[in-house]
Design brief:
Layout (H helix, E strand, L loop, with lengths): L1 E5 L4 E8 L3 E9 L1 H5 L6 H20 L9 E7 L3 H18 L3 E5 H7 L3 H6 L4 H6 L4 E6 L4 E6 L5 E6 L5 H11 L6 H9 L24 H12 L3 H6 L1 H26 L4 E5 L6 H13 L4 E3 L9 H10 L6 E2 L16
Parallel strand pairs: 1-4, 4-5, 6-9, 9-10
Antiparallel strand pairs: 1-2, 2-3, 5-11, 6-7, 7-8
Length: 345
């Protein structure tokens, strides 16, 4: 029985995972409302909130699973905000000492990478290993506010990074674009909402890609293009055409993601394609990438909505799924936070 803690940024989360059943409980405290007034996450406020809410969340979790049934504690080691990661690590080590059980660190990005398989395990835990084997090697696309990456998971469940962003992440580009247009926080969902009523061809933004023949991403030029476009428009016109601006801007971001994913699929012999990370909750992106997978005749797997953002469920699952792949830090009480921990070396 695994108890997982997550505190990499602005969500405090706890989850319980039983390998024979799946996730038996997930509890999350979101800080979005708190940080909205500042237009982004304030680290000091975030760490204070973790301190205030880990206790109540753990109390709820332990009402369903007695401490004596917990055989392992796992916690997000990185990447993330240092002060926030430290809160989770301190809580995890304290519980490990009190209960005399091992504690391990999980890579937040690798947990995202494995999150599309959580549903596969829930459908039939006993057959999971065999079913997963049929889907490997796997191509994954991680799209979040801080990361954009293409990676593979091979037959031994080891992760290899194929490409990442050279500057801004896709989610960051959406959030910054939303801020330029005066939208609320978080910006990505606001852009998605307005884009639904706009035209994707209303404005010609540059396609947010690096060299066409490579898999690397680049989004900083797109953000600059939006700023120049807005500077040419009167405030009243910006307000009246926000839906078109959002639709065109979002389309440019997504075209880059789709193009690179298609190129990667064409270059490798993959048996499945997955989407994870906070931006994976965008329905437009889901539909576009599902079409790419269908064209290549591979299954399309995406993380469930509750596992696209920061959550402890994927941390618990990854700790178990990667148990033999070398992706979990087993340093125990010597475990340290790693704010800049990469997806793969």
């Amino acid at each position: 029985m695994i108890l997982a803690l997550e505190s990499s940024c602005d969500e405090t989360a706890v989850a319980v995972f039983d390998p024979t059943v799946g996730l038996t409980g997930e509890w999350v405290h979101s800080q979005i409302a708190l940080h909205e007034a500042y237009g982004g996450v304030v680290p000091d406020l975030a760490s204070r909130e973790h301190l205030a809410h880990f206790g109540p969340l753990l109390q709820r979790a332990l009402a369903t699973v007695p401490p004596e049934q917990v055989t392992r504690i796992v916690v997000t080691q990185g990447p993330g905000l240092a002060a926030c990661l430290a809160m989770g690590l301190a809580a995890a080590k304290s519980l490990a000492l009190a209960w005399r059980v091992p504690v391990a660190g999980v890579n937040h990005l690798r947990a995202h990478a494995f999150s599309p398989f959580i549903g596969l395990h829930a459908a039939n835990p006993a057959a999971f290993d065999d079913e997963l084997a049929k889907l490997l090697p796997h191509l994954g696309l991680l799209v979040s506010g801080g990361n954009t990456a293409l990676f593979t998971i091979d037959e031994t469940r080891r992760i290899t990074l194929l490409a990442s962003t050279m500057d801004d992440a896709a989610g960051e580009a959406l959030d910054k674009g939303a801020k330029l247009m005066g939208l609320g926080y978080p910006g990505g969902p606001q852009v998605e909402k307005l884009a639904a009523a706009g035209r994707t061809d209303a404005f010609q933004f540059p396609k947010a890609v690096a060299q066409r023949s490579t898999l690397e991403f680049s989004f900083s030029g797109l953000k600059t293009s939006l700023r120049y476009q807005l500077e040419k428009m009167p405030a009243a016109e910006i307000e009246s055409r926000k839906a078109d601006l959002c639709a065109s801007y979002q389309a440019a971001v997504f075209e880059a993601l789709v193009r690179k994913a298609r190129l990667a699929l064409e270059r490798g012999a993959y048996r499945s394609f997955g989407l994870s990370g906070g931006v994976a909750n965008n329905r437009t992106l889901q539909g576009l990438l599902e079409q790419v997978a269908q064209a290549q005749n591979v299954p399309f797997l995406r993380a469930q909505a509750k596992h696209t953002g920061d959550n402890a469920g994927m941390i618990a699952f990854a700790a178990w799924a990667e148990r033999e792949a070398g992706g979990v830090d087993e340093s125990g009480l010597e475990l340290e936070i790693a704010p800049s921990l990469p997806l793969a070396k």
